[in-house]
Amino acid sequence: PKAAITVNVAAKAGGGTDLHTRYITTAWQKTVGQAVAVVNFDNAQVAMETGRTAKADGYNLLTNHSGCVCQYYTGASEINPVTDYQVIAAMQYMGDQAIIVAPDAPYNNMTEFVEYAKAHPGEVSCAIANGNSSHFIWGQIAKSAGIDLKMVEAANETEKLTNVAGGFITAGNVTIQNAIQYEDGAKVKVLGLISRDGVDNEKLVSERGDNWKTLQSQGVDAAWGGNVYIWAPKDIDPATAEAINASLKPVLDDEDYKKGCDAMGAVAEWRSV
Fold it and tell me: How many helical (H) and strand (E) elements, i.e. helices and strands, does the chain have?
């Protein structure tokens, strides 16, 4: 690059998507030879439109996760990332997510949660961002377990944590990092992890208990895997897209990036265009 690069983030500063993006950009600018500026948007749709209509010169990129694809297919967004953008890279797997409930909830794992939900149809609520990935996650859980859940809007992770901890919403899905913090503070308890492959995190299970096993291990066939995607406007020159993608591969060797991924429960990854 001959000048600074701008990376628009379809999320507020301080959230999971923002932190994941900053782990990438901080490492990337060490090797790419120019500054990489991160610009946050409180409104994800404004970010998506800004990125879509930006100049397709390689200096204006956008990061988001697979939730924006969900939003298109559910009608929550008119922007189709697959056709309205050019994918530059799929970076780190954002990690398993924990299913949390209030600390005094009358169940301690997913088996007991499902039994309770079957005995109380329509009474158990779950926190979702309408049309986004959490909506898909809880839809899968309900379908697999054969239970009737009440979907309640909670637009971001902070809202999920506070509403579940306060007993206003029965359950939610959050990052492992936040689940550990809130469980250690006796504000929530964890019933299981939703993962992309159903493989238990043996370290977490040994340290924190069997309630940290994956949903599949507990008999609920639901999975979810989200990566950090980097997009450019769809008219970008293919050679430029390839060059940007290749320049991102060394990020995987950066120690701070790897530590950041570990802290988030993420898996460092890079994929070709």
Answer: 11, 10
Tens of pLDDT, residue by residue, the chain (273 residues): 999 999 999 988 887 889 999 999 999 999 999 999 999 998 888 999 999 999 999 999 999 998 899 999 989 899 999 999 999 999 999 999 999 999 999 999 999 999 999 999 999 999 998 888 899 999 999 999 999 999 999 978 889 999 999 999 999 999 898 999 999 999 999 999 999 999 999 999 999 999 999 999 999 999 998 999 999 999 999 999 999 999 999 999 999 999 999 888 899 999 999
Q: Which of 121, 137, 142, 198 is CA-nearest to residue 172?
A: 137
Q: Of the candidates 263, 248, 273, which has an alpha carbon nearest to the alpha carbon of residue 30?
A: 248
Q: CA 140 to CA 222: how far, in whole Å?
A: 5
Distance CA 144, CA 224 (A): 13
| E-state strands within the chain | 5-9, 36-40, 60-64, 85-93, 97-101, 125-128, 150-153, 171-175, 189-194, 227-233
Strand pairing of 36-40 and 5-9? parallel
Enumerate residues 6+ apart whose C-beta is below 8 A from 113: 99, 101, 107, 124, 171, 191
pTM of the model: 0.86
The separation between CA 219 and the C-alpha centre of its own chain, rounded to angstroms, equals 23
Residue type, 203: K
| In contact, 26 and 267? CB cutoff 8 Å | no
Neighbours of 145 (CB within 10 A): 22
For 56, other C-beta atoms within 10 Å of its C-beta total: 17
